[in-house]
């Protein structure tokens, strides 16, 4: 089933869209982790906010993938178990802003 690209009024093939989501999920969590590793304390607000923003994107992409193709979503989680540690590291970095 094709998906509508409302901005360009083009139809996107489901498989291509799912591949793009997988790529975005990977790219987003890796970039968030890079910013998280730069954070030394709660005064590093720019990097903390960058991590928070990217984690929001990560969750949005995951939700889209989960909604569109459950099986791909499950496979992505099995393949990228390493992201669970990255996710925790990003969450710990964000907490520095509030503690």
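Sequence proposed for the structure above (99 residues):
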């Amino acid at each position: 089933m094709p998906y509508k690209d409302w901005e360009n009024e083009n139809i996107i093939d489901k498989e291509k869209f799912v591949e793009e989501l997988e790529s975005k999920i990977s790219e987003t969590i890796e970039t968030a982790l890079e910013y998280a590793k730069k954070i030394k304390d709660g005064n590093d607000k720019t990097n903390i906010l960058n991590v928070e923003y990217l984690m929001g994107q990560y969750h949005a992409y995951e939700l889209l993938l989960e909604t569109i193709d459950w099986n791909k979503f499950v496979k992505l989680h099995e393949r990228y178990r390493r992201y669970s540690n990255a996710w925790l590291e990003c969450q710990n970095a964000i907490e520095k802003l509030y503690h």
